[in-house]
Write a structure and sequence with these properties.
Distance between the termini: 49 Å
Order of helices and strands: HHH
Oligomer: single chain
Largest sheet: none
Length: about 60
């Protein structure tokens, strides 16, 4: 199951209400809006289309 941004926001806001933290609601909404904007940004689509760089493997050879 994949958690969507809207699902996360609903769960986070419900949790904040349950914990009686009403000031957290607007902050969570702002975070969700910012995350959505970043995910939809043109540069993000360009970056997502490139293959991931190969990560060099650590050299575990002991040094003397």
């Amino acid at each position: 199951m994949t958690l969507t941004l809207d699902d996360w926001l609903d769960a986070a806001q419900t949790n904040a209400e349950r914990r009686q933290l009403p000031a957290l609601g607007p902050l969570l909404t702002a975070l969700a809006d910012a995350t959505r904007a970043l995910r939809e940004a043109e540069w993000n689509h360009h970056a997502a289309s490139r293959p991931a760089p190969e990560t060099p493997q650590p050299d575990d050879t002991p040094t003397t």
